[in-house]
Specification:
The protein contains ten helices and 17 strands. The chain has 345 residues and is an alpha/beta fold. It has one domain. The chain has a four-stranded mixed β-sheet with strand order 2-1-3-8. The chain has a three-stranded mixed β-sheet with strand order 4-17-10. Strands 5-9 form a two-stranded parallel ribbon. Helix 3 crosses helix 5. The chain is globular. It starts with a helix and ends in a 14-residue tail after the last helix. It is found in: Membrane. Keywords: Glycoprotein, Glycosyltransferase, Membrane, Signal, Transferase. It is a single-pass type II membrane protein.
Length: 345
Amino acid sequence: MILLSFIFLLVAVVRINDTSPRLPDDVLEGNPRVAFMFLVRLDLPLDFLWHTFYENADAANYSIYIHSQPGFVFDETTTRSTFFYGRHLSNSIKVDWGKSSMIEAERLLLQAALENPTNQRFVLLSDSCVPLYNFSYSYSYLMRSSRSFVDSFLDMKEGRYNPRMASVIPMRKWRKGSQWIALLRSHAKVVAYDDVVFPIFKKLCKRRPPLDASKGKQNFKLQKQHNCIPDEHYVQTLLAMNNLEGELERRTVTYTSWVPFATNMEMKSWHPVTYTYASANPQQIKRIKDIRHVYYDTEHRTEWCKNSAAIFPCFLFARKFSRDGAMRLLTEENFDASASLHKSP
């Protein structure tokens, strides 16, 4: 069994390290673009804010892709912004939180975006994300960095790693982090065309079933199962398996505030704060923009937010914002349409 496991691991490493180009049209002609990839439940409720973000941008500098429910179309009847007309994927799938369909949808977005060779940066966003700066600042921030931005840290405290993965994914390569990534093209290919780690996640990385009062004592048995949330582990673990962590800024550029939450039937867990009109005030937005480092207690590591060796604000985007919270960004000075990213703000 030990020999068999070693053979499986060796084959997986060989296949993972095969980074030969899969796209024949990688010659860059024209401006390098940022591919904005929106992973949404249905529509884009904050499209009015993103419209402001894109309206003064050079259309040659960005591309937009949206993964929504199968059959949902972005047109004049479903969005107030012309920037999103026809940007939906035609091959979208039904996505369930805590299941591998979430990372499958991310891969579909990456595969679609990679078809355009001018797309050089790939940013994953949700339907509750907002931009904190104007397009020029965000574009320059992403393009000036030679690294991907991937929140990634050791996951040693929780029982999410399934030992049955060991034949392909050794525990020392197991990582956790935010799903909201910003990738270089080379790293986007690794994620989009991975055929080794993804099948293992699909089979063995599954969310623990929620507590059910009707099941009584059986809940204790259910809660001993591995509680693996695929979108919090997949990209981070895959890039670690490819020995690419040295090419990353191991942090996200999308801010989320987490608070503990529990009900009578649930163990304490962490949930993202939703910013409403009241909480999306100038003082709060300034506090987010002023963050320059992130601390990871599992690694006793402070990640300074660097960009080409200079210290910069950590975050370009933030979530989760309600519609009235996003509207306040337009009416207050929070969303600075004149910000320049040729210097640190």
